[in-house]
Each structure stands twice: as structure tokens, then as C-alpha cells.
Amino acid sequence: MPRLAISPEFTRELGSLARPVRRDAVVAVRRFLGNSPSAPHPERVRNGRDHRVTTLRLADRHRAVALRQGDTYWLVTVLPDAAAWSYAQRHRFGVNPAIGVIETWDAEALERVEPALRRSAQRSEQRLFARFCDTDLLEIGVDGELLPLLRLMTAESHFEVLEPLLPESQFAPLAALAHGGTLADAWRELDACRSSEPGVVDTGDLAAALRRSPHLAAFASDLDELDRIMTLPHWCTFLQPPQHTYANWAGYDEPVLVTGGAGTGKTLIALHRAAHLARAGAGPVMLVTFSQGLATELSSRLDLIIDDEVVRKRVEVGNVDRLAHRIVTEAEGRPPAVVGADDLAGLWEEAASGRFGTAFLLREWEQVILAQNLRTLEEYQSAGRPGRSVELEPQSRAEVWEAVGHVVDRLRESGRRTLLQLASEAAALLGESTGDLLGEEAPGREPYRHIVVDEAQDLHPAQWRLLRAAVPVAPDDLFIVGDPHQRMFDTRIALANVGIPARRFHLKISYRLSREILSWGVRLRGGGPADGLVEGIADLYGFRAVRNGARPTVLEYVSPEAETAGLIAHVSEWMEEGVPTQDIAVAARTAELVKAARTALRDAGITVKVTVLHGMKGLEFRRVAVIGVADGIVPAPDALTPASEDPTARAHDLQRERGLLYVACTRAGELLYVSYSGRASPFLPG
């Protein structure tokens, strides 16, 4: 019986086949794994560049390309006959000698590049990699057959041309050297390309190399596992090396923070870490995310990752607000009443004076008083006010405290609380230590052995204090993922300041976005640094994508009606091209625009996800349309603090509005369409 490994490219190409062809191909693979007499047999490839490459006829005029060694077969792709033979002849495969992962090479394309490099080398004495001898390059895993090409390169541009032709484990360390880095820099990049310690690398051991490459190969030991690999979404099975490493690490002695830009796989890491902890069975796991809607989405994803019902029940998926509400409910014996936004705004109107407006008072309460859990005027008088640019003398602080007290008193009188108040009270109920809450003798508590946090950048300090109190201080207590550059709310807390000194890991590669969408998105957001989650600031340096795609389409329309017609035309075209409706999303800044777009699309017989920009958080789609990106709509005027009241707050508001648009646009993995009528939003790149 063969040992069969499946590549993500194989399942992707399989999914694109016509249904009858796909059905026949699946049956053929199942027969092959079962060693059936009617199974396809390997066929030799003539004039190939790797003698181990073979093909298997799976369906009418379609065959798989496989790499074979002994009884191990790696199904690399499935293509029409002519394309499959061409692929098989063109490619060779190797094992990186430094980290032991499998590598795929388009040998024919590299051969075509060589003459141009040789001509260029004749015109210059300079060599890009002259600082490093062959031994240096071989030690960082450079393939011996690549060395002659490297020695011909005279400029960084020559190397960048090769990026699409090189395995990531070759490109990443060499890029560090090409950009002036040291061998130590190259090793750091190479380490990010492995998901486990390789031990002694045998470049002739195909099975071992495939097992070290979970992003490129998944072994099917039986038919059930084969069906699971071929039918489930890729993210259930195939994780990129850093994603696999962080999600499946045996144990962390301290809280962990994983940061990274859009499309780097932070949510996938959180999901798989929760699954890993649940399988370990040390205690209940909570997976926390931004909203209950996103929690529902993550819960359904977790159902796919964990197929063992007992293990799945060990993970609760929710948001912090629900956790706080439940803890307070169980402590008080009845559900707490939560004040609505309109009623709360009315209370702040009552409390506001001519000197301090409602927005200023609300921010002061949430970002200073609640953030630092200040209980008395004396504590407030001596507290720092990070992020608040308007200086307050003692008398002014007393006036603010009186106004806040008015609102708090009115809330108490009516028996209502805000969600942040509930979080603070829930944290107090759990206390500073939860080590004694893990047994059954602590009814009415919500203890967890592990907490995994997604979208961490938007949690308030009061919510962080609740999460810290909800899990004991122990190994594998808190695992946190987030990105300060995707912040949607003005929460800029460093975890260390709320009792969570986390060990940080950083992701640099966006696997979802194309280079074109990423570059446009970074210009949209502004490439400057962002604060929060960690001490100091985090920047976007080194953030990159690994594939090319179409440039974002930005269109101006003469009227809202014309813009709506353009949206319907584009979405209809996408559907005609075969894009499933669940892979399409439409987003806008206001509820009115969302309602109008949803109605127009429904009238045209189109049902796709249509949501406000906030609703795109944490999701991903093949194609995204963001409409109404006009001046006066984005940024939303009502969301901006007047500059005369607090210029720093206004700057934060503008950056938050940029972040909203950036998050929505970077949900698109394949195509991004942006439209407006009238004058364009000042955020759109020129």
C-alpha cells in the first residue's frame, strides 16, 4: 500500500475541474491509496529534469503529476494531459539541506533566465553576492544548481526577477543578503521557513522532507483522512511554516503575542492553537474574538478543524462582552441591564458643560478612568493621560470627575451599566488569582485553563484585566494574536501595562494578498508605525506578499445611481466568471449605503455579503467591492473629534477611519474594486 501525500496545489486544481472529471479523479486517487487492481499506474516521464517525477491518469484527459520515491508518492498537481506532461518535464524537486523542507523548482524557466544574466555580467565587474563564498551560501541551504546563476547577478533587480521562480526557503535568506544583510540575517529568514527542528537532514529522504513541509504536503493514511484533505478548505490542513510552528508549539512558559499584517494568518494560528490546546486536554479553552458575529464564524471554522466531538466541546468561542455579562449574571443572580448607545449619549449631554463636550468626556472616561480602573478623584488627579493632548489642571480634572460621576450615578440609579463597566466588575469578581477556580468548588465563576485571543488590538484595558483574571498564571495561559495597524477603536494599551508581559513573535508575509493589493493598501493606510499591544511602536517594515495579481480598480461615477449600476455590473461579471457568491463581499461606511446596495443587488437577483466596513473585520473573500469611498463619507464626519477640542484625538480618529477602510480593502485575496461618486475620499492613494 503506497504512502500518499497530497499538496495544496493538487486539491486546488482538483476543485477547479468540471464536476464529472473531479468525481472520476477522486475515485482514482481513492483506488490508488487502497492499492486497488483498477487503480491508475505510474507512467514514466520522458525528457524530464527529475527522474522521480511520474504521472497518473486520473480521469478523461487529465492526470496527476507526482513525485515518487519507493512507496512514497506526493501528488503535486492535476492538469489536462498536455499541461501535466509539460509540468512534469519542466520541474525538478529537492530537499533544502539546511532545514530539510521540500522545494519545487521550475528548472526550465531558470534555464531561460541564464543567457540574459550572462550578457549583463559581461558588462559589469560588480557581483551581487561577491561578499559570500560558495561555502557560506551552501550552509544557508542554497541549492548547488542555483549557485552559477547567483554568481552572474550584478544588481538587486536581477535577483528580484527570480522571486517567482524560487522556493521561499531559497528566496528569503538570499533576499536578506542581496539587501545588504549578514549571514545571521539570512539564517533568521531561513528559520522562518521551517515548522520543526529538522534534526539530521537526509536530502535523499523524500518522506521525511514532506513531513517537515506541512504547508506543502499532508499524508493520508486511510480513505477517511484522504477525503478530509481533499474536501476541507486548505486552511484546515495546510499551514505555512511560521503558522504551523506558533500554533503547534508543545508549550509556552509565558503569554505569547503574535503580530502580523493583513493576510499573514493570525486568525488561522489562533484557531489551530485552540485546537492544539483542546487536544492536549489540560483544561477548558476559550477562544476570544472581536464580536459575537465573528465568534460564530470562528466557531464554525473550529468545527471543521476538530472532528472529535469530545475535543471540540473543550473549546468555547465567544467575545469578551458575553463573558463579562455571564460572570456578572451568575454573581448577581439575574442578567444585568446594559445601557443603549442613544440613552448613554443623552446622559453625556446632561453632564456636558460649555467647556467639555460629550465626546471629550466619554473619551476621558473610557480611555483614562476606566482604562486605569481609577476609583477616586485623588487617583484621577495623579494619573497619567496617555494619548490625550489637552492638558487638564486640577480644577479641570475635578470638573471632569464630577461630570463622569453624574453619568455613573444616573446609570446606577436606573440599574444599567455599559459593557466596559461590566468587564471591570467581572474582573473584580474573578479576583486577582484564578488558581483556585479550576475546581468544581467555585460555582458561578468562568475559569479557563487556556485563553486564545484573536483581533487583540481592539480590546480595552478593562477587557484585558478580565481575561487576565479568567485564566491562572501558568504555562500556556494566554495566546494572543493581533495587528496594531488594523485597529478599529482607539485602544492603545501595551499588554505589559495590564499584567500580561507577553513574548512576541512577528509575521512578515501576507499569504492572502497579492503584491498589488498589499502595496495599494499600505499606501492607503499610511506606512507609518502604530502603537499598542507592545511597548513603543510597530512598523510595516519587511511586510510583503509572495504572489502577483491584478491592481485594485478605483472608479469614479457621476452619481450614486451610476455607482450602484457599476457595482451590479462588476459583481455580475464576477459571478459569470465562476466566482461563488460566498467568495464575494460588498462593504460601505454607512448603514444607509449598505441598505441601498443590498436592495439593488437583491433586485438584480444577486445575494452576496453586504456589510458596513466594521463587518469585514476578521473575514476574507476572493473579491471585494468597497463602495461610497467619497469625501464626506470616508472619513465619516460624525466620527471625528473637532480639532479645537482635542487635536490629538482628531488625529487618532482620522487614523482609525483609515484603518477601517484598510481592513475592508485587505479582505480581498484576488480582486479589489473601489468606487465613489463626487469627490474621492482623501484617503485614496493618488
Automatic annotation (TrEMBL):
Pfam families: UvrD-helicase, UvrD_C. Its EC number is 5.6.2.4. This is DNA 3'-5' helicase. It comes from Planotetraspora kaengkrachanensis. GO terms for molecular function: 3'-5' DNA helicase activity; ATP binding; DNA binding; hydrolase activity. It comes from the Bacteria. One of its GO terms (biological process) is recombinational repair. Transmembrane segments: none annotated. It catalyses: Couples ATP hydrolysis with the unwinding of duplex DNA by translocating in the 3'-5' direction; ATP + H2O = ADP + phosphate + H(+). PROSITE patterns: UVRD_HELICASE_ATP_BIND. ATP binds at G260, G261, A262, G263, T264, G265, K266, T267. Residues 239-520 form the UvrD-like helicase ATP-binding domain. Keywords: ATP-binding, Helicase, Hydrolase, Isomerase, Nucleotide-binding. PANTHER family: DNA 3'-5' HELICASE (PTHR11070:SF45), UVRD / RECB / PCRA DNA HELICASE FAMILY MEMBER (PTHR11070). It is an enzyme of class 5 (isomerase).
